[in-house]
Each structure stands twice: as structure tokens, then as C-alpha cells.
Amino acid sequence: MNLIHNIPFFSIFLAMFAGIVTILIKDGDKARRLHLSITVVIGIMSFILLMYTYTKEQRFTFMMGHFPSPWGNELKAGPLEAMLALLFSVVMFLSIIGGKHLIKKEILPEKQGFYFIMMNLIFGAMLAIIYTNDLFTAYVFIEINTICSCALIMAKDSGSSIIATIHYLIMSLLGSGFILFSIAMLYSITGQLLMTQLKGSIMVLLSSGEYNFPLTIIIALFTIGIAIKSGLFPFHTMLPGAYDSATTASSAILSGLVLKSYIILLIKMYYCVFTINMIRQMRITNLLFFLGLCGMVIGSLLALKERRIKRELAYSSVAQIGYIYMGIGIGSDLGIEAAVLNIIAHALAKALLFTVVGRMKDVSLSQDFNHCLKCAAHKDPIAGIGFLVGSFSIIGIPLFAGFASKLYLAIASFISPAKMASAFIIIAASMILNAMYFIPPTIDIWSPVHESDGNYGPRAKVSKSFALSTTAFIAINLLVGLNYKYIVHIVDIGIQLMH
């Protein structure tokens, strides 16, 4: 076997192994350095894999353990999976170095090692979800993702973080229950767990007309389970408290990556198991389209009235998740490509926003929306520029990654006349609402400084790690925004290979 074909397995193995090794490391700084080193190595391997699969337009299967179907464990990788693994590596690395100071400040020294155990494990779990080709592996790592997410939320060990963790855990377990029921039912009628064999068995059942109703229930249960875990409206209630209570790096990773990993699995199931045509025929796409539109508007309205900045960003995430599900709900390859482009754009923009907001809260005196940002750009200009770029990307201003994602959603809606009018109206309304809650604070942080301002004071000491993280986030956001056609081409090849 080609050595490159081992990259998906080694990526997952390295991240999980680092989690085990970190148990032996007592010093938080050493644990962080190990995590960052592993993330860099996995990022480099993901880039090599992306170049290999993209140039060859190839998607290959890696068998783990060599157990035969139906109980085997397999990974499958192509250009789309490799690009997403690279994205996750980059966002993970930049979020950790950008939030390094607050990790040391907000988490007790003796618990920082445990924090990075969870970071390594959640990184490995997300990679496994991206690459998996069997439902057993998918479910195991979904649960690892859930447990690690809860640990990251309550890492600050405050009363509010514990309450938020319990809420997050209850909702996540509800979603896991739906997913487990759907997998059990699917196995009971097909006797398969590997996605390739499952697809063949389902096609046979469809051609014979058997089990049409159970298959509809299975797809509905799986979709609802993923919708709950990814925070789609109206299952979003766990997000504001979780992101507000978590430390900066945790909020960036939970919002930018963890929610997206579940959606990526849903897209893989729609293509590699059920087929997108089957999903359209059962009108699942119509439901996702409607909930996506609702999430876009209601999430933005809730963000508009928030007074705590991290909760406002959480509701903004609800709106952006709505954009992604609207793309899936269009029910075409172009709609799915637009959804994936939204996943990429939101991961970059929201991780950047949480990182810079953490910095601004650190140099400010208040968590109140108005006062937290007051004069922040004058105290740390890099944070101010980062907030500007992240906000413009979420709004959909040209040149930034968020514009490209919204543009492709609009283009994708053209091929579905029944959905085109509602899609255009809601996209426009949501973008206006995004501007309404992002532009005022953006102006506020760059307003002239007056001694009467509550946060008036000298410029904050420059943080090299934060400056590096923010600069890199800004550069990548612009790079994606200016070269989105190349990203779309990679996504298009990846989607076609999944058919």
C-alpha cells in the first residue's frame, strides 16, 4: 500500500496517542507544546494527502484490523476529507496559541495538563469523524467528542461553567440517542456497518420496495440527532451558556470545529450511505431548508438583543449553522458545495472572533457588551483589526471568506426555483441583521478614546502568540475569500468522488 494511504490512520493515532502521553505530563506548558507539535505534524500530513488526492482525483479506503464486512473498521479519504483535516489542524493550532494567555490565566495550573488531554482527544475524534467509513467508528468518536466537549466547557471550574456543561451534556446525549437508534435500526435491517456495503444493501431494499417506512424513520432519526448535536435551530439552547462559560480557546474550537464535524458526518451519510437523491425524495431536504432559514433569522435576532459578547457570538453561530443547513436543504451538489464553503468560512471567522474577543475582554474592565469593546482597538490594535475582519466575513463583505460562501448559496438556490425566492429574501435579511449586530461594536472599538470611557487606559502589552494567531487568521480568511474558486473546485471533486 502507498505510504500516503496511511496518513488518515496516523493522523488519528497521533492525536489519540498524544492524549494518552499527556497524562504523564504534569506541566501545562509542556502539555501545550506537545499538543501544538502534534497539530503541526498532522497539518503537514493533511496537506500532503490533499495534494496527492487532489492531483490524482482519487478517494481511497484504508482498512483497519483487516476484519471482513460487516464488522470491519475503515477510513476513507479524498480531496474533501484531506482539506477539512487541514482546516481543522490550522484552526486548532491558531486557536490554542491565540488563547494561550487566557488558558494559563483561567485554568488552574494543576488542571492545565488535563485540559490538553481533552484537546488531543477531541482533535483525534474530529479527524476520525471526517475520515471514517463505518458507523461503529463514527459513533464511538461522536461520544468521545461529546465527553471532551463537556470537559472543555467546565475547564474554568466555575458555577456557571458547570451548569452550562450539564445543559450541553443533556442535549448532546439526546442527539447521541437518536443517532444510536438509527444505527441500530439500520444494522438490524441490512446487517452492515461499513458505509459502502450499507449503500449497496439500501439500494437493494429500495429496488424491492421493502422497508421504505423504516428507512424513512432511520434517516429522520439520524438527521435529528446530528441537528441537535450541531446546534441547528430549535436545538441551539445549549450553545450560548457553553460558549460564554468556556475559556477562549475552548469557545473557538467548539464553535469553529466541533459543530462542523457532526455536519460533515451528515453530508457523508447522505452521499455514501443513503444517496442525495433518496434524501430529496423523502423530503428531508425540505425540512432542513426550512429549519436553516429559521435559524438564520432567529439566531441573528437573538444575537441582536444580547448584551454579553460571547453569548452574542454564540447566537451568531446559530445563524451561521442555519446557512449551512440551508445549503444542504437545497438538495443539490452545488448546494452541498455551498454548505461546505460555509463550514470553512465560519470555522475561520468564528474562531478568529472568539480569539480576539477573549483578548479584548482580558484588556477591558467589563463583560457588558457596550463596555467590553469600548476602546479595545486602541488598547490592542491587532485585536481590533481581527474583530473587523471576522465581523466583515460573517456579514458577507466582498474579499472575505464569508462573502464567497453566501455567494455560492445564492447561486445554488437558482437551480431550485421553488426555494429560490425564500432563499434570496432570507439571505438578504440575515446579512442585514448580521450587519446590525456587528457593525456598531466594530465602530465602537475604533471610536476616539476619552478619559471618561470606562475602559480608558494605556495600550496593552503586545502578546506575540496572540498577534501571530490573529495575523494568520486574517491572512487565511483573505486568502480563501480571494481564491474561493480553487476551494470550490476541491470540494466539487470531493463531492463527485463520494457519489
Could you describe the 3D structure shown?
The chain has 499 residues and is mainly α. Helices cover 78% and strands 2% of the residues. The protein contains 22 helices and two strands. A two-stranded antiparallel ribbon has the order 1-2. The chain is globular and about 70 Å long.
The unreliable regions are none
Strand order of the largest sheet: 1-2
Report the major sheet.
2 strands, antiparallel
Q: Structural class, from secondary structure content?
A: mainly alpha
Helix content: over 70%
Task: Please compute the radius of gyration using only Cα atoms.
Answer: 22 Å
- The outline comes out as globular
Total number of distinct structural domains: 2
Tally of extended strands? 2
Number of helices: 22
Distance between the termini: 24 Å
Summed over residues and divided by their number, the pLDDT gives a mean of 87
Give helix and strand order, one letter per element, not per position.
HHEEHHHHHHHHHHHHHHHHHHHH
Sheet-strand content, in percent, reads under 5%
Task: Give structural attributes.
2% strand; 2 strands; 2 domains; two-stranded antiparallel ribbon; mainly alpha
List the helices and strands and how they pair.
Layout lengths: L6 H16 L5 H29 L3 E5 L8 E5 L1 H20 L1 H7 L5 H20 L3 H19 L5 H32 L4 H14 L3 H19 L7 H8 L2 H27 L1 H6 L2 H21 L4 H22 L2 H31 L5 H4 L3 H4 L1 H15 L5 H13 L3 H29 L18 H19 L1 H15 L1
Antiparallel strand pairs: 1-2
Helix pairs in contact: 1-2, 1-5, 2-3, 2-5, 3-5, 3-11, 3-15, 3-21, 3-22, 5-6, 5-11, 6-7, 6-11, 7-9, 7-10, 8-11, 9-11, 10-11, 10-14, 11-15, 13-14, 13-20, 14-15, 14-19, 14-20, 15-18, 15-19, 15-21, 15-22, 18-20, 18-21, 19-20, 19-21
